[in-house]
Amino acid sequence: MKKFTDKLVEGLFKMSGAVTSIMVLLIIVFLFKEGIGLFNASTVEKGYTLFVNSNNPIEKLSPESLKKVFDGEVENWKALGGKDESIRVFRFDEIFSLYSDEELGTDYALLPQKLGEIIQSDATIIAYVPQKYKPKSTDGIKELEHIKISLNDFFLGREWLPTATPAPLFGIVPLVLGTLLVSLIAILIAIPLGVGVAIYLAKIASENVRKFLKPAIELLAGIPSVVYGFFGLVVLAPIVQKAGALSMGETAFTGSLILAIMALPTIISIAEDAMRNTPKAMQDASLALGATKWQTIHKVIIPYASSGIAAAVVLGVGRAIGETMAVLMVTGNAAVIPHSMFESVRTIPATIAAELGEAPAGGTHYQSLFLLGCVLFVITLIISIIAEVISSRKIFKE
Amino acid sequence: MQSKKIKEQIAFTIFRLLGFSVLGILFWILGFITYNGIRVISWKFIFSYPTEGMTAGGIFPAIIGTLYLIIGSILFAFPLGIMSAIYTVEYAKDNWLTKFIRIMTNNLASIPSIVFGLFGMTLFVNILGFGDSILAGSLTLGLLILPVVIRTTEEALKAVPKSYRLGSIALGANKIQTIKRVVLPAAFPNIITGLILSIGRVSGETAPILFTVAAYFLPKLPQGIFDQVMALPYHLYVLATSGTDIEASRPMAYGTALVLIVIVLIMNTLAGIVKKRFEKNK
Fold first, then answer.
1. pTM for the model
2. pLDDT tens digits for A187-242?
3. How far apart are CA B188 and CA B186, in angstroms?
4. I need a surface site. Which of A305, B1, B90, B211 has the fewest CB within 10 A?
5. Using a CB-CB distance cutoff of 8 angstroms, which residues of chain A are in contact with residue B25?
6. Distance between CA atoms of B43 and B39, rounded to whole angstroms?
């Protein structure tokens, strides 16, 4: 009996050993499963369709063109490859101003027919109608071909307008660029500061200074990101606004400042460890040759620890890219391609956090946010693998 | 010779300044929050419900909510994490499988917290049908701290001298008995350090609870594990960005931020004390 329970407990240990691997796997599977449906969805909003007059040579329209047509940016069919005629945009609601409820019949039974007539009578029309009321006969009218959202629309699309009608745009380029911009500036600020502090802690500071500087840095790592966000919002944003004479302080740069502070503890502790691991014999040899302490640090310790320092920087980038709340609170969240670091940007994690609550479950918007989660996951995965490779690289060169 | 020394002086001064600038940043943040928050903190703030569109009253439901989430996530992550660490340290051989597990644990630790939120929302809230609930939130947060628990426990187990294990086996104990009676008690204080640090982490995380448990405004205490709760970090987010009247709720936000920071401060200090004790006894 005792043997049996022992075996059971051991089995339990073994199973738990695999738990993290299983979780990572499950996370990939579930995010992917929820998101992948996006590429099976039509570019036109679910439950709706588009009609044109049958004399119109256009067969299908890309989501970008649709958006331009319905926003009034494109007003002539010629621009879309059609005849030289101005476009008449017909939104479904307009039917109620053309016909009274009686004319449309009980339960709007005559509505599809009336819609058909309208489209038939105007060669320049593009009509946006619910599937439910779509005209039954196709005399003189034609339905635009439904195209599926493509990988290109998602990965190379330059506009993120997930709630636009009739065709939402799910281009993640502005979000990816926003994330990279904020993280890269953050890391540029954090590297000199972080590595400098690591050098100070590892080789210069006295034991007494270390004793209170180390816990202080650990504390900096412990402050919740939402508190950093709050601090950035009420302290840094106004400073940035005033210093740059900007219309608002919530910019990519403000986000970078906060992220730099947040990435510091990671960079400092890993870089410091790397420098402490420099063999004492190498340092002693350098000192014995008459080098000063600074020359030893500069010529022996830093080169020796360079791969550890690089790993620290890469992990700092990883931390910055994945950070959600602080960035959400201080970058202003405009989902457009940034042109300077003093503009509002929106990062991938901030987009997920801000929009998931409003996206109807199972819809294209919802799916696109899960795909964004996949993208974020893959980016951080690659980063942590890079960090692993760098830090395990052999430093000694012949 | 002289210029070498001068260079060194200059370099060291710069590094010293950098070192203390980090301290400056920390004090700036802590000082700012404390200075503005301390005026709001009172027994009433801690123990009463938010009123008047969250511009007055207190944060009691958020404190209780966070407490539930701490307990829930630890109940989930600790047994699992400790068992996982026991496997990798005491049982696993040094082969590709162990290496793979270690890499996966590292990966789990590097996954952004918002991704945990997405995952928790699909698996716990939707597929398993827990809804927005303490259970779903605790499981999500538990996953988040799992790598922390595993890592600290692994370190704690590795720090137990091999002679302890050999001594126990020599006395006729089997492996399970050795782990239960000798290794775990010896590693216990260090495991506790991990526990305390995870509490700090759980109390501050916002992104994983956004879609799994957190309530915008809920002036009552939860009745069971399937209820939604307010939580301190989410409450601060709401107060700072989307309250009914952001200017008027600012004092409340300072107070909430201070409470959060104090929790983290206490947890870090506690962890430090326990660790020091442990090192002394060794």
1. 0.89
2. 999 999 999 999 999 888 888 888 889 888 988 988 999 999 999 999 999 999 99
3. 6
4. B1
5. 220, 261, 264
6. 12
Helices (H), chain A: 2-17, 19-35, 63-71, 95-98, 111-121, 151-155, 173-199, 207-222, 225-231, 237-244, 252-276, 280-288, 293-296, 302-322, 325-330, 348-355, 364-392
Cα of first residue to Cα of last residue in chain B, in angstroms, is: 46
Reduce the DSSP state of residue A161 to 3 states and report it.
strand
Which residue is closest to A15 within chain B, CA to CA? Answer: B84
* Dist CA A27 CA B144 (whole Å): 12
Instruction: Please report, to the nearest 10 degrees, the dihedral formed by the alpha carbons of residues B142, B148, B153, B156 taken in order.
Output: -150
A372, closest residue in chain B (CA to CA): B115
Set of chain A residues whose Cβ sits within 8 Å of the Cβ of B22: 193, 197, 213, 216-217, 220, 264, 268
Using CB atoms within 10 A of its CB, is residue A292 exposed (0-12), middle (13-18) or buried (19+)? middle
Q: How far is A363 from chain B (nearest CA, A)?
A: 14
CB contact under 8 A, A209 and B203: no
Residues of A within 8 A of B207 (CB-CB) are 225, 324-325, 349, 353
Query: Which secondary-structure segment (H or E) carries A50?
Result: strand A48-53
Of B84, B126, B253, the CB nearest to A230: B253
* Contact call for B176 and A9, based on CB within 8 A: yes
DSSP code for A125 = E
| DSSP structural state of residue A53 | E
CB A111 within 8 A of CB A133: yes
Determine the angle formed by the axes of helices A302-322 and A252-276, rounding to 10 degrees: 140
pLDDT in tens, B184-223: 998 888 888 888 888 888 998 999 999 998 888 887 788 8
- Which distant-in-sequence residues (6+ apart) come within 8 Å of A87 by Cβ? A69, A74, A75, A76, A77, A124, A126
- For residue B56, the distance in angstroms to the closest alpha carbon of chain A comes to 19
For residue A331, the distance in angstroms to the closest alpha carbon of chain B comes to: 12
